[in-house]
Amino acid sequence: MFASVRKSPERLQAVDRVTQWTRERFRLPKEAAISVAEVACSLPGCAPLETVVMFWIAEQRYQFKLFKPLAEVVVDDLPYAWLKDALAVQEGASWDCC
């Protein structure tokens, strides 16, 4: 049942949109890998569905969360380009809290 929802044309278009916006916003090279996923959160205070975006430049990973479902994400939800360095993930860091 869920497999058809996850691969629906609308969902794939939403992933492509967020991927393209991320590439443009942070001026990422074509070879930079970008991952866009929608995850469920059951922790108190979390949005039920969150959109998680990660990208890699060389060996450095960057990530951010958008506290809304993938289908509702708009370009203005993405962090400003000047925040890119703050999105870098340090070795051993996790998102256990949120």
Low-confidence stretches: none
Oligomerization: single chain
Number of strands: 3
Secondary-structure element sequence?
Answer: HHEEE
Mean pLDDT: 88
Rg over CA atoms, rounded to whole Å, is 14 Å
**Cα end-to-end separation:** 28 Å
Structural class: alpha+beta
The side-by-side strand order for the widest beta sheet comes to 1-2-3
Main beta-sheet strand count, sense and barrel state: 3 strands, antiparallel
Walk me through what this model shows.
With 98 residues, the chain is of the alpha+beta class. The protein is 22% helix and 24% strand. It contains 2 helices and 3 strands, in the order H-H-E-E-E. The chain has a 3-stranded antiparallel sheet with strand order 1-2-3, covered by helices on one side. The protein is globular and about 30 Å long. The N and C termini lie far apart (28 Å). The model has no long low-confidence stretch (mean pLDDT 88).
List keywords for this structure.
98 residues
Brief overview:
The protein is an alpha+beta fold. The chain contains two helices and three strands. It is globular, with a radius of gyration of 14 Å.
SSE layout and pairing:
Layout: H1 2-6, H2 9-25, E1 33-40, E2 49-57, E3 60-66
Antiparallel strand pairs: 1-2, 2-3
